[in-house]
Amino acid sequence: MSCKEDNHLAVVQEMDGLVALWDFKEEGGMVRKAFGKGEFPLKEMNGEIQRLPEGPLSGYSALMENEVYFSLPHDKTADLNIHGKNQGVTVMAWVKWEGKTGFVGGMWNEYTDGGKRQYGLFVDLPHYNGASQVCGHISYSGGPTPPFPYSCDYAASKQKLTKGKWYFIAFSYDGKYIKAYLDGDFQKRAPEPIKNTKGFEGLPDGLVHSKNPYLFKDGMGDNGSDFTVGAVVLSRGMGNFFNGQIGGLAVFDRDLTEDELEEIFQKTMVENPFLNKE
To answer: CA angle 22-23-24, nearest 5°?
Structure first.
């Protein structure tokens, strides 16, 4: 059966702006290929990545454990290399998270040559108010956010994830605001003090702002990162390993609307024969 013959997949494939959609149906030991503007074959790193017979898109998922991840070299990223001052992007994934900070997918290298950050979807970034939440990161410079040691430029969902449950997670960026979604639902966060921002030059009391939506007018840089799934480059080497299962990942080169993301959630997570209903 082709991907388009599955109604719960067609809603993703047929939306404008799709660059790549992976459903992780391939067996362990194989590259994972995408539908969209290219196959963008993801190569297994740090060992074979087991396929489990469970997942919202294809009925399968990739088991991310023991520091495994996927990678596509920068020179093969092509249309995944989304960047620009007013360029939109949306990254979404179907995941079962088992705890700890985890990178889901995108072009996000935190260390090489001072950092090659661009765009990335995370779960659980507690340092700047994103604990157990869906987090969408954008960078223009590729480096940390001055004057801080890390990048704090990410939206974080108001809702929190629980371990061991399938979720549809996403973030969008329209060139001005980053929005984080959990199960197709965007919830605003009131302005709040941001942890770990006090005492820096010019910021004796730290930052106070909303984490959802997160205002970021700089745009996305063209910074040279590989496209990775399940881990990013840190100063100590690969890190932020995703712990759990990834049953699908999609990247769009525009910001999808709240209605579109809600529709994807309904078609892929509610009206879905591949998910066990209680």
So the answer is: 95
Helix (H) or strand (E) segment spanning residue 259 = helix 258-265
Separation of alpha carbons 135 and 132, rounded Å: 9
Query: What is the residue-level pLDDT of the chain in tens, covering all 278 positions?
Result: 334 345 678 899 999 999 999 999 999 999 999 999 999 999 999 999 999 999 999 999 999 999 999 999 999 999 999 999 999 999 999 999 999 999 999 999 999 999 999 999 999 999 999 999 999 999 999 999 999 999 999 999 999 999 999 999 999 999 999 999 999 999 999 999 999 999 999 999 999 999 999 999 999 999 999 999 999 999 889 999 999 999 999 999 999 999 999 999 999 999 876 765 44
Is residue 217 within 8 Å of 176, Cβ to Cβ? yes
Length of the chain in terms of residues written: 278
DSSP code per residue over 4-27: GGSHHHHHHHTSTTEEEEE---SP
Query: Reduced to 3 DSSP states, what percent helix, strand and coil does the chain have, rounded to the nearest 5?
Result: 15, 35, 50
- Contact between 56 and 268 under an 8 Å Cβ cutoff? The reply is yes
Does the pTM of the predicted model rise above 0.90? yes
User: Residue 226 contacts by C-beta under 8 Å, 6 or more apart in sequence?
Assistant: 71, 72, 73, 74, 77, 107, 109
Alpha-carbon Rg for the chain, nearest whole angstrom, is 17
For 41, other C-beta atoms within 10 Å of its C-beta total: 15
CB 137 within 8 A of CB 152: no
